[in-house]
Amino acid sequence: MTRTRVYRDGVLQKEDFPLADVSDFLAEPDTAVWVDLCAPSEADLAELADELGLHRLAVEDAVQEHQRPKLDRYDGHAFLTTYAVRFDEATGRAATYELAAFVTPRALVTVRKDDRFDIDAVVRRWDQATELAKTGVPFLVHGLLDCVVDGHFEAVQALDDEVEALEDLVFEDRPDSSELQRRSFRLRKSLTALRRVVLPMREVISSLMRPDLRLADELTRPYFEDVHDHARQAAEQTEALRELIATVRETQLNLQGNRLNLIMKKVTGWAAVIAVPTAVTGFYGQNVPYPGNGAPSGFWTSTVAILVLSVGLYALFKRRDWL
């Protein structure tokens, strides 16, 4: 699956043309080309790499999975790796989708590891924000990063809502401890995955704004700074969520300990009340006649009384959530 576009003087001229035409468009003045490849092999990238002068190491990184978010600079181009994030509220898990990009003075080449990355959202972002289109490649890079970082921010906000819901569960009158543990574990796991891709974006965008890459000039710098500010906010909120989840877990354990102490206090009080008559009758060895004394009916009566009282105590403790 390959998608292509060419812009001339900020106007979309043609799209979905063959890769063989890329060099022809690049030979024309005032053009910027976008090429998107989905799950290509290294051999698929070889022809395009020769035309654009892409470094062999960057091509290898583009087809390999699980690269860290980074920006590598080579002679004539830069190589970018980033991740889109989507938080599934139904499962409480954060899914990450890897994306690589080659940034050259006249072309942007995006490489998706699979079709889960919504490249159509990036295209819509380009079509809706055309005020930077005349800048060419900076316009394409900004739209791509803006879409990715907005996804990070949305995922962080969704995770924040889940943490608030977890806080409400902690302070319920009768919280479900097993459910709290499962949800807190899922949230910590999702937060770890989120931190791994969100935190490095601050440095990545800062590197893209360096003067030697010629992406952030007087016109485009405010837009890149806006994306950088959103990335910084997402990173700071992610760090705050990490501390908040740890605090929620600590609060849950403290409440469980306090509640257990209260239950032990009540049970111990009842045991002390029962222990006094037990000690007195045991000391005097009282053995008085009772209904059914010396008869089988007395045994069955005492057995039924023991079972009824035991079941009654269990139901009472269960109803008060002592068990």
TrEMBL record:
Localization of this protein: Cell membrane
Entry annotated with the keyword Transmembrane:
yes
InterPro entries named among the record's database cross-references: CorA_cytoplasmic_dom, CorA_TM1_TM2, MgTranspt_CorA/ZnTranspt_ZntB
Q: Where are the transmembrane segments?
A: 267-285, 297-317
Pfam families from the xrefs?
CorA
Could you name the Gene Ontology cellular component terms for this entry? plasma membrane
**Name the record gives this protein:** Magnesium transporter
**What is the species listed in this Swiss-Prot or TrEMBL entry?**
Amycolatopsis balhimycina DSM 5908
